[in-house]
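>> received
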Amino acid sequence: MDFQALYKSKLTTADEAVKVVKSGDWVDYTWCTNHPYDLDIALAKRASELEDVKVRGGVTMWMPEIAKADDAGEHFAWHSWHCSGIDRKIIGKGMGWFSPMRYSELPRFYRENLDPVDVVMMQVPPMDEHGNFSLSLAPSHLYDMCARAKCIIVEVNENMPQVFGLFKTEVNIQDVTMVVEGSNPSIPELGSVPPTDVDRTVANLIVPEIPNGACLQLGIGGMPNTVGALIAESDLKDLGVHTEMYVDAFVDIAKAGKINGKNKTLDYGRQVFAFAAGTKKLYDYVNKNPDVMGAPVDYTNDVHVISQLDKFISINNIVDLDLFGQVNAESAGIKHISGTGGQLDFVMGAYLSKGGSICTDPRSTVQYLVTEYGMINLKGLNTWERADKIISIAHPQFRDDLIKDAEKMGIWRRSNKR
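>> returned
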């Protein structure tokens, strides 16, 4: 087959491509760095012609043009699978909602639960000689999404890295409806949050617990990045990576010679991830790098897959914790911050992993909790023992009040103090 001829036959402009969108359609902007750019601008120009266009996205890294107008909500409704600060602003405008999910279930949602997608719009790197467009930095759920799509429009961006994949990590020109050669914007960067003193203290408690040959998953935020920086400076060796989100910290650890994946029982030697976002350093590192491998999120976050990786270490941020040991990592009260993501899956998978350990979720799954005041293990403890341990790593000025709260809840005994 002449893939180049097929490519040329489907080539069009952004303004022409978006004419396929009709009022009431479900349009998918895909995920994070792969959100469309020129197509988004073109669709925003048509706002006055459209009503009730429902747009899905997630981990949004720049404000979509369709969301900028004051009356944007009269034409478009944003549905976020996982909130970034941008998603929160869109929802705050009254034109969008958060869709709760365990991230590992998202491909299955597209296969089984959601109506077919009317239009997919996404940025991809240039087509290869086999007619494939790499799903680049966000294989995640995009293959299963495209499999349900009536119309797939790819926006080619020469700055998008080509990432090698496990399976379901590319879309072929035969399945693409239209091709738009975009303006090649640079990929927005997600810089590391500067570590706080608390981050450093917690990281210094965690890193000594990581053994040589461990397989790592890091969440996003100051503390996991600080852990990554300490690992890069440590004497650890023969580490592996199997993670939901690939961040700059992994690049630093790899360049320090700490990662080779030689002890991985699955995907030997490869750093595996569902999506990636960071700085140009990361984007350059993953481009055509055989040491890294994109994969669907229902593989990376599958508890059964994770549990097969020996010495699996899952390190994540949390927002708050109650005295039962239940963890909240996605909201401040009812104010939504991010999403469930894959934290629960990695917590369970890490605990089931031979020699693995965890740092975070629902009270029955939490193993280790770490604050700047210490590290505790909650496995096997009853409710009052858990409360006692949790209070012991709280800020000293709050401990007496927490004891009073625990007494009211019936999970405190005077014998705790002995």
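>> The radius of gyration is 23 Å.
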